[in-house]
Write a structure and sequence with these properties.
This protein is an alpha/beta fold. It is built from ten helices and 13 strands. It has a seven-stranded mixed β-sheet, with helices on both faces. Strands 9-10-13-12 form a four-stranded antiparallel β-sheet. The chain has a two-stranded parallel sheet with strand order 1-11.
Amino acid sequence: MVDSISSVPQGAPATALTTALPPARDHGGNLAAAIARFGGAREDWIDLSTGINPAPYPLPPMLAEDWTALPDSNAQQALIEAARSFWQVPEGADILAAPGASALIARLPVLRPSRTVQITTPTYNEHAAAFDQCGWQILDAGPAEGQVVVHPNNPDGRLWLAEELTAPFCVIDESFCDICPDQSLIARAATPGTVILKSFGKFWGLAGLRLGFAIGDPELIAGLRAAMGPWAVSGPALRTGTQALNNPDWAATTRLELADAASRLDQLMQQAGAQTVGGTDLFRLYDVEDAAAWQERLGRAHIWSRIFPYSTRFLRLGLPPADRWGQLETALT
């Protein structure tokens, strides 16, 4: 149930966007701030401010050497082979595993001389922050020497077309694309100047594992590999990532469950007066009359939500755990 919509969600009022998205690092999460504001113990809260799968991939048993030894080269190669198979990476594209997609995002701008980069807003703001810090001029529209697209986009779920990617240096962030693999632009991974990012924390629900991948032009991947240094991925992450990527049945079942949960969330929010304007099967974006008031209302019920500094009307919610839907239903009614 991924929505392919424009960068300003269809159906949203003209007043939904109030300013251009700044490069400041503004994120979901940070449940500690919500607890400090509204009280309660951590176990009382549901954190719906992120797009992390609430039913994570089960962690495999670990060996002592996963914790005590430097990551093994054979284990690293097994992870890369699993990634190549799972994402159907084309021949000619290289793959690098890293300690999370964010670590890769911070290093991407230095792979090319600082010029102009198109980052169409609204989108995940860590890209703009990274390019801005490295001296790039950020444009909302092209043409430009660089281009960053989040596919599907966060927060509105926009899906980009291959013909829209026109810059010689192109970053495609597919952190949420594992819910809709048929929409992936992985076929472009061998194209010169292209890097595709994959996140392990979203679809697999293991954000704390810190595992991400860069797939693309071997020259660019080599630059990232040199910047990361040896042993970038921990032993536990190597084992877990390899097992998960070799388990397509879990992925297929999870996609169906997430789609059902996203539909259920939309129904609840629409009954409460919100309008669905976009999102993915891991998070939904709603238009509400006063987003800050909605966050306050949910916060008093110990449910943390995501609002945005560039909109007074956008409210984004992730999916509740299976045993906590009642808490959200009560808060909305």
